[in-house]
Specification:
The structure holds 2 protein chains of 2 kinds. By secondary structure, chain A is mainly alpha-helical. Chain A has 16 helices and no strands. In chain B, helix 9 crosses helix 11. The two termini of chain B are about 35 Å apart. The chains are: A mainly alpha, B mainly alpha. Chains A and B meet through helix 2, helix 5, helix 6, helix 7 and helix 9 of A and helix 1, helix 2, helix 4, helix 5 and helix 6 of B.
Chain lengths: ~300, ~325
C-alpha cells in the first residue's frame, strides 16, 4: 500500500514539470489511447473483413438481415477448397514465389557489388554513380511500362516469368544499393586496411570481412525486395498474358473476377492466401524491416 | 601475396598471379562490380525511358512500327476531354490523398511517440496495410464498397439508423473518386507514420525541456520545435509520397478500372487503357510522358519548398 503510494508520488514528482494536475489517467486515455485505438481499428478492419469473408458460407455472405455480418455462425473452408483445387491458384503462388526469389537474389548480388564499389573502392566519380542510382528510384513504373513492354517483346521474353525477374531489379537495385551503402559506411574501414596489409585481395575482403559484417543490411534489403516484388502489379499485368504464368495479384484480379456476380468468398480467400506469405515473412523479420524503412528515409 | 596457409601452396602459386592481380587492378574491379547494376538499370530503365520519349512522338501500335509524327499525339491529347479529366483527377487525387496521409500519419506518429505497453507490437501491426499487396487490399475495399452488401452501409443503415438507403460508393463519379482517395489514404498512413516516427525519435528531448522551462505550451512546443525539426524528413517522405501517389495505378485499376463513365481515370490507368489494352503504344507513351512535367514540378515544390531550411543553412548531407 505504502509502496504504491510512494511509487505514484515519485511518478507525480517526475511528471510534475511537464504536466498539469489533471494530466493523469483520463487525459491520457482521451488523448492517446482512444485515437490510437481508432487508428488500429480502421487500419486492421479490412483484413478482418477479408478473413471473415473467406470463411463465410455464401448464404451468410448475402444475408445481413438474419446473420450478423461481423461474425460467422457456420464457418466453411469451401472457398479455400475451391481456390486450391478448382483454379490454378497453387500454380500462381508458385510463379509469384519464383519471381520474387529470383529478382531478390539478382538485385542483392547486383546491389552488393555496386554498393561496395561506390562506398569502399572510392573511384573518381563514385558519388555521381551513387546519385544516379538513387535517381533511378524516383522513376515510377507507371511511365516505364509501355516502352518496357516493347523491350520485353524485342527480347522474346513476353509472357515469361523471366521478364519479371529481369525487370523487377529496376526498382529493387536502387533501393538495396542505397541501403547497403549505409551499412557499409558503418563498418570500420580499419578492418579492411588490416586485411589489405595481411595480403588479402579486394574480393577476399568483400567476402570474408565486409559481407559477414553487413548481414543485417543484407537481410533488410532481402526482405524489402521480396515483399516489393511479391506486391508488384503493373509490370506483371502488362507483360504476362497466359493464365498459368500470372502472379497472384494479377491472377486474382483478372482470372477470378468473372461475370457479373462476383464470388466474394473466393476473391477474399485468394487475397488472404496471397497476403499471408508476405505477412508471415514480415512478422519474422519485423525489426529489420522497420529499420530498413526508416534507415532509408533518414539517409 | 597468396593466401597464407593453404595445404597445397604449389598449386596455388601460379593461379593468383594473373587472375587475382587482375581483380586487384582497381579500374577492372570497379567495372566488374558496377557492371551488373548499371547493366540492369541501363537496359531496363534508362533505355526504356528514352524509348518512351521517342514512342510519344510516333504513331506506333502493337505489331506495327511507327513513324515520327512530331507533336501530333500531344496536340490530340490537349483536345481530348478524357485526358483533361485524368489530369484533373490525378491532381485532386494526389492533393487530397497526400494531405490526408500526412495529417493522419503525422498524428499517428505523434501518438506512437508516447510510452505505452506493447509499443513495438503495435508498430508492427500498423505497418500491415503497407506490406500487403495493394491489389489484394484494394479487393477488400472493393468488397467493402459493394453497392448491396457494403459493411459501411450496413453499419449506417441497420445499426446506427443514420441513413435509410445504402450508399452507392462506386456508382457515380464523385463518391467513386472519394472512395478511391480514402483507400489510398488508408494504405499510405502506415508508411508516413513509421517514417515520421523515426524522425521524431531523433529530436533531442533537451529541446523540449528547455522550452518547458521557458513556459512553452504543448502547441508552441509542437509548432516551434517538432515541426521545424521534422521539415527535412517531411520533405523527403512527401516527395516520395507525391511521386508514387500521382503515378498510382493499382488501386484504381483494381477497384473501378477508371469507371464509372471514365470519371476515375488517373493518367497511369488511362495510359494503360490506351497503350496496352487499346494497342496504341504511341498515344499511351504520350500520356505517360505527360506525367513527367507534373512530377518534376511536384518534386521541386515539395523538396525545395519544405527543405528550404536545411538548404539555406548549407548543411552538408551526412
Amino acid at each position: 500500500m505504502t509502496d504504491t503510494a510512494q511509487a505514484s508520488a515519485v511518478a507525480d514528482a517526475k511528471a510534475a514539470p511537464d504536466t498539469m494536475a489533471w494530466d493523469s489517467g483520463l487525459r491520457r486515455l482521451m488523448m492517446i489511447y482512444l485515437p490510437l485505438g481508432c487508428f488500429v481499428l480502421v487500419l486492421l478492419f479490412p483484413f478482418y473483413w477479408m478473413a471473415i469473408t473467406s470463411f463465410k458460407p455464401n448464404a451468410e455472405l448475402m444475408n445481413y438481415k438474419e446473420h450478423n455480418p461481423f461474425w460467422i455462425t457456420s464457418p466453411t473452408l469451401a472457398h479455400i477448397k475451391h481456390l486450391l483445387f478448382d483454379t490454378a491458384y497453387p500454380r500462381w503462388l508458385w510463379t509469384t514465389m519464383l519471381v520474387a526469389i529470383g529478382s531478390t537474389t539478382l538485385s542483392l548480388i547486383a546491389s552488393t557489388l555496386a554498393a561496395y564499389a561506390i562506398e569502399r573502392l572510392r573511384f573518381r566519380g563514385s558519388p555521381y554513380v551513387g546519385l544516379g542510382i538513387y535517381l533511378a528510384y524516383l522513376v515510377p513504373p507507371s511511365i516505364l511500362f509501355i516502352p518496357l513492354a516493347t523491350v520485353v517483346v524485342q527480347f522474346g521474353l513476353f509472357d515469361s516469368p523471366l521478364a519479371l525477374i529481369l525487370v523487377y531489379p529496376t526498382f529493387l537495385v536502387p533501393f538495396c544499393t542505397w541501403l547497403l551503402i549505409g551499412y557499409f559506411k558503418s563498418i570500420p574501414y580499419e578492418l579492411e586496411e588490416c586485411a589489405l596489409v595481411d595480403g588479402a585481395t579486394r574480393l577476399q575482403i568483400l567476402r570474408r570481412i565486409t559481407l559477414p559484417l553487413a548481414v543485417p543490411g543484407l537481410i533488410s534489403a532481402g526482405i524489402f525486395s521480396f515483399t516489393l516484388s511479391w506486391n508488384e502489379f503493373i509490370y506483371a499485368l502488362a507483360f504476362i498474358q497466359s493464365g498459368a504464368n500470372k502472379t497472384v495479384p494479377v491472377a486474382i484480379l483478372t482470372e477470378l473476377v468473372t461475370g457479373d456476380v462476383y464470388q466474394w468468398g473466393a476473391l477474399m480467400a485468394g487475397s488472404l492466401l496471397g497476403s499471408l506469405p508476405v505477412a508471415i515473412f514480415y512478422s519474422l523479420f519485423v525489426d529489420y524491416y522497420v529499420s530498413s524503412l526508416t534507415g532509408a528515409v533518414k539517409e | 601475396m597468396s593466401v597464407t596457409t593453404f595445404p597445397s601452396p604449389t598449386l596455388r602459386v601460379r593461379q593468383p598471379n594473373w587472375l587475382v592481380r587482375l581483380f586487384d587492378y582497381k579500374p577492372f574491379l570497379v567495372t566488374m562490380c558496377l557492371a551488373p547494376a548499371i547493366g540492369l538499370l541501363g537496359v531496363f530503365l534508362t533505355y526504356p525511358l528514352g524509348l518512351g520519349l521517342w514512342l510519344a512522338f510516333t504513331d506506333t501500335t502493337i505489331g506495327r512500327k511507327g513513324e515520327f509524327i512530331g507533336l501530333e499525339n500531344f496536340q490530340y491529347l490537349l483536345t481530348d476531354s478524357l485526358w483533361w479529366n485524368a489530369v484533373f483527377y490525378s491532381v485532386v487525387y494526389t492533393g487530397i490523398a497526400t494531405f490526408g496521409k500526412f495529417a493522419l500519419g503525422f498524428w499517428l506518429a505523434l501518438l506512437l511517440n508516447n510510452h505505452f505497453p506493447f509499443k513495438s507490437l503495435l508498430r508492427a501491426i500498423i505497418l500491415l496495410p503497407w506490406i500487403v499487396p495493394t491489389v489484394l487490399s484494394a479487393l477488400a475495399f472493393w468488397w467493402i464498397y459493394d453497392p448491396q452488401f457494403s459493411i459501411i452501409s450496413y453499419l449506417l443503415v441497420d445499426v446506427l439508423h443514420w441513413r435509410t438507403t445504402n450508399i452507392d460508393f462506386l456508382g457515380s463519379p464523385w463518391p467513386a473518386r472519394f472512395s478511391l482517395i480514402a483507400a489510398n489514404i488508408w494504405r499510405g498512413i502506415p508508411f508516413v507514420a513509421i517514417s515520421l516516427l523515426a524522425g521524431l525519435q531523433t529530436i533531442s528531448p533537451s529541446l523540449y525541456e528547455a522550452a518547458m522551462l521557458d513556459g512553452a505550451s504543448a502547441w508552441q512546443r509542437f509548432r516551434y520545435i517538432t515541426f521545424p525539426m521534422m521539415m527535412p524528413i517531411l520533405a523527403i517522405v512527401m516527395t516520395f509520397s507525391i511521386i508514387f501517389t500521382f503515378t498510382d495505378f493499382q488501386l484504381v485499376y483494381a477497384i473501378t478500372r477508371g469507371g464509372p463513365g471514365n470519371s476515375t481515370h488517373l493518367l497511369a490507368t488511362l495510359a494503360f487503357q490506351r497503350g496496352i489494352a487499346g494497342g496504341e503504344l504511341g498515344e499511351g507513351a504520350a500520356i505517360a510522358v505527360s506525367m513527367i512535367p507534373f512530377l518534376v514540378f511536384a518534386t521541386l515544390f515539395s523538396y525545395f519548398g519544405l527543405a528550404r531550411r536545411k538548404w539555406q543553412q548549407g548543411e552538408a548531407n551526412d
